[in-house]
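Supplementary Data S3. Sequence and structure tokens for construct A.
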Amino acid sequence: MEKDKYRTSPEVYVFAMRSSVKLLNDRHFTENNPRLLKDALKYGTKYVKYKNKTENPGDYDLYYSPDIENLRFIGLDEAEYYYHESKYRKAAYYSKKVYKLAPDDPRNQLILGLAQLTRRNTREGKANIEAGLENLANEPSDKGGDLLEKEKEIIYFLTRASSIELVGMHKQELAREIIESLSLVLTKQQQEKLNEQFQNEGSKS
């Protein structure tokens, strides 16, 4: 009984998450423990799961939302690293893990949808992008600036990666549709770069 109580306690997982995140700053330790970030994301996901089953999940947010935001930033930073290494599968993996930390956040929905498109899951990817755009007005107003900027960056990079995959699948129209639909969250310069790249990829296919 006591064991089950602790197994479903949000605090147990948020403390485990904090410890894992703290250890990420130790380069020697991370070199010998390559799963450390994956473990932190796993604990963070379990914290969110059990927090949402409590009577007052908002009480937990008052104390621990900065920890979750920090982990989201770290996870997206890892996804961006793999994007630049052209390892889109791993970039999608971390993007999906970050989504589970805040599934109601509309930009997280966009990131999930784009990650799914890079894995050629067009049906769910398109649906999640549409849902994220519809919910954009409900974006948390207290979101940290660093996290928001990181989200904007990864949305751009994943849009680029997904358009490459879609053109490779001969789905040029869907790629164009996705780029145009994201005009609400992309800068003009980013859109111009994506359109230029889209034309280049289209001419190769």
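Construct B, processed identically:
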Amino acid sequence: MHGAQVPLRSPGVAYRDEQQALMLEVATLERENHRLQAELTEAEQRFKGLLSGEYEQRRKTVRKSCVMCSGNLLPVAIVAGHDVRNPLPLKMSTLRFGSPEGGFTASAPVRSYACGTCGYIHNFIDMDLGDLGGSLGEVG
């Protein structure tokens, strides 16, 4: 005959134990998921803050470093006209079509900087009146 038989558990009890264990495992995994989602959201916020800080820093130093090679920018004069002794500074219209008579009604100087490393010339329309020491000039 056969050896001693091991008493079998009731199938209902094993099922309930497994179901409870799975429910506990699911609850634990859901808590872990919520914690990880919160950490991910926090990390994304820190990353966005860091990126915005870097963007603001780059925006503030746009006139201080070359966009091509990150070299130092040096001020240069780019002028118009044929008279070397009396050059005409370049200006860019700021209110081109603001006047009913048409034409240029206001202008701002063009500031130029050359990179000391690669020689690339950067031109900026100087809208900051603090550098001019006055107001924008009216053109006739």
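Residues 41 and 47 are 10 Å apart (CA to CA). Residues 10-60 form one domain.
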